[in-house]
Write a structure and sequence with these properties.
Layout: E1 2-7, H1 12-21, E2 25-30, E3 35-39, H2 42-49, E4 54-58, E5 61-64, E6 71-74, H3 83-93, E7 106-111, E8 125-130, H4 144-152, E9 155-156, E10 159-160, E11 168-173, E12 181-182, H5 183-202, E13 215-217, E14 220-221, H6 231-243, E15 246-250, E16 271-276, E17 302-305, E18 309-312, E19 320-323, H7 326-348, H8 356-359, E20 367-368, E21 385-386, H9 388-396, H10 398-401, H11 407-422
Parallel strand pairs: 7-11, 7-13, 8-11, 13-15, 15-16, 16-17
Antiparallel strand pairs: 1-3, 1-4, 2-3, 5-12, 5-14, 6-19, 9-10, 18-19, 20-21
């Protein structure tokens, strides 16, 4: 059986040595994320688990968040009722001249692959890697292409589709052509993105370079095991804390029951996104998973549109689908990063940086909820739907225009960016 060894004080070399001592085979290390994966019997795992400084976890299967969600084929994006969604983002982008497109943002999509030849994704994919059990990086199963489209779908006719059409995509395939993956394969993908961060930093690349990943979007998940040493949670935590990445994940599609948030969305350092139904009313989607987590954390963090969302069809270069699920509300938040970040850079300069993990601290001041829902973070809406117009407007106003409750958030993010430049 495959096991993950999580360092609780031991070095990677020490973990490998101890694994060898008990007879483990096929030992593989993840240096940046301080994990070792290996084959062991249950007896060997039990022996190793008694050693101080190591946590031993069986490797579990995971799945895309929206495997069972309905779909419908569309001839073009404009025929989808979610045209109102793209219209909302288009309205935000068109407030500026030249328009903001999310240029400078790079999102690593850990999923089933991406069909980069689709008309809406041409020239979007800047890097590809495959850690799945299937050959090739193309999307055969049909999920990653849809997620990439939501983040960075490009121009279609006279309209932009997707949230940040100027953003770049890293296609990190971690789910097989049959829709099967393991925690190990997901951790492999996170490790590669962290390696790319290190390479970009050492090369002196700016945060806005296409080869400098800024966000990891994982529209996938597994049942909450209530374990802070879960391999995906550990990897996500380190990606945020040590490599400066935002990690965005869906809440899951198993609501409305409580305690149904999926891992890694159960991790406090992960930005977890639930789904709401329409553009015109902030009403949580019935199937959107609810908190609290088994450890008692209030989740999700935010909600975004996730019902009948148009997406690129992986089966052709010009087809489109209608999809529902928190798999698609999560990449909306990932894509919104680009619009907010580009707006801020125009005011404060190219070294200004935006991260959700920091901005989340003041989320009650810029999120919307129904009047009958508590204003505090709750287990259905989280903080609520980010008020994009308010956020962009405050940023665009410059220092003189930021005089109210947005000031602490902006200053916090600006200070963070300055500190990173100094480092």
């Amino acid at each position: 059986m495959r096991y993950a060894l999580i360092s609780k004080g031991l070095t990677i070399e020490q973990l490998k040595i101890e694994a060898s001592k008990v007879g483990a085979t096929d030992i593989k290390e993840q240096k940046l994320l301080r994990q070792v994966f290996c084959e062991m019997s249950d007896e060997q795992a039990s022996t190793l688990s008694k050693l101080p400084g190591v946590s031993v976890k069986p490797v579990k299967a995971i799945h895309p968040d929206s495997i069972l969600m309905p779909e419908r084929t569309l001839a073009a994006p404009q025929q989808s009722i979610s045209g109102d969604i793209w219209g909302a983002f288009s309205g935000i982008r068109s407030l500026f001249s030249p328009v903001i497109t999310g240029q400078g943002l790079t999102v690593a999509v850990l999923d089933t692959g991406v069909r980069k030849t689709h008309e809406s994704l041409l020239n979007k994919v800047v890097y590809e890697a495959n850690f799945s059990g299937s050959p090739g990086v193309n999307d055969v199963f049909g999920h990653g292409t849809q997620v990439a489209f939501v983040i960075a779908g490009g121009e279609h006719g006279m309209e932009y589709v997707g949230v940040s059409p100027g953003a770049s995509i890293m296609n990190i395939k971690v789910i097989s052509d049959e829709g099967i993956a393991t925690e190990e394969e997901v951790v492999d993908g996170i490790e590669r993105v962290c390696e790319l961060v290190v390479a970009a930093f050492e090369a002196g690349l700016p945060y806005t370079d296409p080869m400098y990943p800024n966000v990891i979007n994982m529209s996938l998940g597994a049942e909450d095991d209530g374990d802070e040493d879960n391999p995906m949670r550990v990897a996500s935590r380190l990606a945020v804390d040590e490599y400066g990445l935002d990690v965005v994940a869906p809440a899951g599609n198993t609501g409305p029951s409580m305690t149904t948030i999926m891992s890694p969305g159960t991790e406090p350092k992960v930005i977890t996104v639930g789904a709401i139904e329409t553009v015109y009313q902030v009403s949580v989607w019935e199937q959107s998973s609810r908190g609290p987590t088994k450890q008692g954390y209030v989740k999700p963090d935010f909600v975004f549109w996730g019902v009948d969302v148009e997406a690129a069809d992986h089966r052709s270069d010009a087809g489109y689908l209608g999809k529902s699920g928190t798999s698609f509300s999560a990449p909306m938040l990932s894509g919104l990063t680009g619009l907010l970040w580009e707006t801020g850079r125009r005011v404060y300069g190219e070294n200004w940086l935006f991260r959700w993990i920091e901005a989340r601290e003041l989320a009650p001041y810029y999120c919307m909820k129904p009047d009958d829902v508590p204003a505090v973070k709750d287990n259905a809406y989280g903080y609520g739907l980010p008020a994009m117009g308010t956020m962009v407007g405050r940023l665009a106003g410059g220092p003189a225009g930021i005089t109210d409750i947005m000031t602490p958030m902006m200053l916090m993010v600006m200070m963070m960016g300055m500190m990173k430049m100094m480092v």
